[in-house]
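Progress note, project year one: complex with fe (ii) ion.
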Amino acid sequence: MGQSDNIMKCSAKLKYPEVRVEKSNYNYGLILLDDLASPISEVTAVMQYLNHAYTISDGKTGGLMECIAKSEMIHFEILSELIRKLGVTPVYANFCGSCGTYWNASYVYYGYDTKDRIDNDIQGEKAAIAQYKRHIDMIDDKYVKENLERIIKDEECHIALLTEAGK
Ligand SMILES: [Fe+2]
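Model obtained:
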C-alpha cells in the first residue's frame, strides 16, 4: 500500500520503520495474531470504522472514520508482514487470548448514534494501545518493537482526531 497523502491524513506525521524482524520466532508471531485479529485488533478496527463511516449521517464524521480505517489498514499490512516474517501464517484468528478462535463480526461495536460510536472508537484505540504496550514488553525483538511503537503513534493521533470530532 502506498503512503499517499490521502492515506496519511489520519496518521502521525512520522516515517514508518522498515518492516523487519531480528529473527523468525513462532511464539512472537502468535502474540501478534492477537493484534491482527482478536477482538482488540486491526481487523476489528478496520471493519468497525468502515461500518461507522457508512452508517453515520454526519458526512464530516463519516469521512473521518473512513480516513482512520485507511490508517488502520496500514497497520493491518505491517502486522501481516511481521507475522509472516516471524514464521506464522497471518490468518484472521487469535491463538493467545483464546485458543484458535477465528475473527468474527461480533467483535465490531455497531453503536446507535454518532456520539456513542465516537466514544466507543476512542475506547477501542485506548485498549489497542494498552495491548500493544503489553506486547512490546513480551517481545524481545528490537525491530518488532519499533514497528509496534510506530503504530501506537497513529492510534494516539486517532484519539486526538476523534476527541475533536466528538466535541
Ligand atoms: Fe491500528
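The helical segments are 5-8, 26-37, 42-55, 59-86, 114-138, 142-165.
The pocket of fe (ii) ion is lined by residues 42, 45, 72, 75, 128, 151, 155 (CB under 6 Å).
No further modelling is planned for this target in the current period.
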